[in-house]
Amino acid sequence: MDKAAALQGRIIGAHGRHYTVEFPDGSLRQCFPRGKKAGAAVGDHVVVSPQAAGEGSIERILERRNLLYRSDDMRSKQFAANVDQLLIVVAPEPLFSDDLLGRALIAARSAGIEPIIILNKTDLHDSLPRARAKLAGLAGAGVRVIELSALAGDAVRGALLPVLRGKCSLLLGQSAMGKSTLLNALVPDARALTQEHSQALGAGKHTTTTTRLYHLPDGSGDLIDSPGFQAFGLYHLGPSEIERGFPEFQDGIEGCRFYNCTHRHEPGCGVLAALERGEIPRERHELYKRILAENEAQGRY
Ligand SMILES: Nc1nc2c(ncn2[C@@H]2O[C@H](COP(=O)(O)OP(=O)(O)OP(=O)(O)O)[C@@H](O)[C@H]2O)c(=O)[nH]1
Ligand SMILES: [Zn+2]
Description:
The strands form two sheets. This protein has a five-stranded mixed beta barrel with strand order 1-2-3-5-4. It has a two-stranded antiparallel ribbon with strand order 6-7. The longest helix is centred in the C-terminal third of the chain and has 16 residues, at 282-297. The protein has helices at 98-110, 128-140, 153-164, 179-186, 190-200, 239-244, 250-253, 270-276, 282-297, and strands at residues 7-15, 18-22, 28-33, 45-50, 55-61, 67-72, 75-81, 85-90, 114-119, 144-147, 168-173, 211-215, 222-225. Helices cover 30% and strands 26% of the residues. The chain has three domains: 7-61, CATH 2.40.50.140; 67-225, Rossmann fold, CATH 3.40.50; 239-297, Orthogonal Bundle (Ribonucleotide Reductase Protein R1, domain 1). The chain starts with 6 loop residues before the first strand and ends with a helix. It is α/β, with parallel strands linked by helices. Bound molecules: guanosine-5'-triphosphate (GTP) and zinc ion (ZN). It holds the Pfam family RsgA_GTPase. It comes from Parapusillimonas granuli. Its cofactor is Zn(2+). It is found in: Cytoplasm.
């Protein structure tokens, strides 16, 4: 039997050990990594050997521009590859976690991906000021914050489609922030598409698509939806990468007496001075110390 020619495609779905790969003609194949090799992520461009029954094996992952991932307890979890921007969805109710938001920002910066915070549920007028206040420091340090209510579909499209145009964006958020509501406003047939794909690929009803790339309706831009998360370890990052994830520290860092200052106890530390003056929110510095301590406890450095 002739060996079919290899095809080049892009991973648009990750479901445990198998992947949905999309080809330039729009066709899809369910693909498995060859051998034990793992590590492919949604957004990866891959070389596939076609197999029978619409399947394929992933022979090679082409060079990626970036990869966003987290690492908890010796396991790493890849969110997506070749991403232009990270949209982190937060809300006033339930009030978002500073910890998870902060970690997502660090992961994005270290991967060279622009983070954008989406403050959802702006219709909850009573709790909105508290959420805004929590984001003020980041906004002041140059992180883009877009406010909207996912319930108002037209307004969502008006605010976000220009931001998403021509880019590959990854949507991330802890549970109940409104990520699914937002996705449905942007990609109206998202749910139907997911079901259709899992049926067409014989993946069965019970296969939960963990991560999925959607093409925006006007054909200009892609949006990757990833599952919620409870933990967000950053064991793979060194101290300087963690430090860079705190844009509000940067002015202070320029004033540190020691070039290798860790901004925890050193005399003449510009970050601690800014903290004392109230220019850096205390919980941000606590998060910074917590992540360093976690990684040190792992024996990372
Ligand atoms: N008031 C208000 N409620 C919203 C808004 N967006 C979403 N919600 C509600 O918030 C709840 C959670 O929304 P989902 O879209 O399911 O949240 P999710 O982030 O996808 O949550 P998981 O499915 O747990 O990951 C639902 O009851 C939504 O109706 C909003 O802009 N305003
Ligand atoms: Zn310092």
